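thread: overnight batch results

M.L. [08:02]
morning all. the overnight job finished for the chain we discussed friday. pasting input first so we're all looking at the same thing
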Amino acid sequence: MVIDKKTIDFYNSKAPEYSSWSSAHKKNLQLDFFLKNIPKSGEILDFGCGTGWSSMYFASEGYYVTALDASKGMLEQIPKNDKIKLLCCDFMGIKHQAFFNGVWASFSLQHTPKSNFPIIINLLRNSMKDGATLYIGIHEGSKVVRDKLDRFYCYYQEEEVLNITKKYGFKLNKITRESSKGYDGSKINIMHLFFKFNSN
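M.L. [08:03]
and the structure it wrote out:
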């Protein structure tokens, strides 16, 4: 298990409340920029999908989505949709090969220990078609902490993410930053990073 148990227990127990909060904090600018780089009716992996607001948005735009999360409670909040396939497993459970046109990892990778980050990026690379787009939303910094709700977090510097993703064939396309507020009320700095995968 590469996702912290206390973190998953929190999401399982608070899924309905978190669903309402996360739906109100959608990142439409990032969603639309991401989709500009995905072919119509393409396959998208929503990696750490939570309560699925991004999955539902992708499906509404005509894309096919694999919504992956380790929290069964979170997945249960996602309405049934013929374009959305639910997959309950941790981050090491992705077994697809050259399948996805895009991977959307929105504030999910920060819940796994840093030692697992390169392994997961490699698994994602293997799951993606050549020319596919990867989005990573992540907290910026250098801390490894538990928040006020006992969720596990690893913060990342830009250079850390770029060094690892470059090693596995990802080229940075765009990065933006903003200040935000977490579910526990804490102030955070976040990064939105968009990559293009090239196998050559």
